[in-house]
């Protein structure tokens, strides 16, 4: 039946694509904000310290500051540069670490700094002083960032509403009622993600959250989670929990236990999740350019900025669906922006 599961004992670990895991590394870095979180607590990727960024006369109007050279950040920056050029604006780009090496003073004459990624946003936000303003894209955890409600700030985040994610799970697995997830009790970001999940849970659904910090290893936490009577494992871009190795371990363990996984990026789905959502970095860059233009055109840098949610894409993996004995609804597959079926990725 459409959307129902049937038992399947065939070997299944081959569904975890090695190429997909490699591609996932950049997506985890960009969305979760850290390539490798420590065993407990906050992300290891902390913003460097330096003196405040100031604006001086002369040079480009816009300076894009990339959290790193990860592919999604570069895609966003290039799309932003093209759109700003179309709008007649000048822009240059620099990686955060390079900016810090220069003393953190940035470029003279910059009117708007654009943070590309959460790490860059966390560093720039407290250091931007008037008359400069700040835009951003590829930023997660917007509600925690301190950007909301601040004058001279505006941009687009990567936070796909949890309610929309759960609605997608309901479409993919109509009989699903029990969701499992990993979190870290010592991480404020992770506790926030857990609170959002609990608040967004549909009526009649149950959430089983396994605390990684309460286990000796991440592998143990994953095994405990996959042994639970759950219908799907839900993941979120939480840098305190997920890095590429954790994602790969989760996908392998879930496949062995016949548990579908909901991934937080198309790369995650390509690597072995059943279904998931993600953002388009180029689209983020173009929208950041539009918000940058609004800040440049504002009569004063103290003008409140606009903070917008992301346009998200749906991804499905038909190879994983077959191995798990799940038939995804035809309407969902047709709606998906990315379909991984072993014949090459198909984009809608």
UniProtKB/TrEMBL annotation:
Region Disordered, annotated ranges: 36-59
Ranges annotated as biased composition (Low complexity): 36-48
Official protein name in the record: ABC transporter substrate-binding protein
Organism: marine sediment metagenome
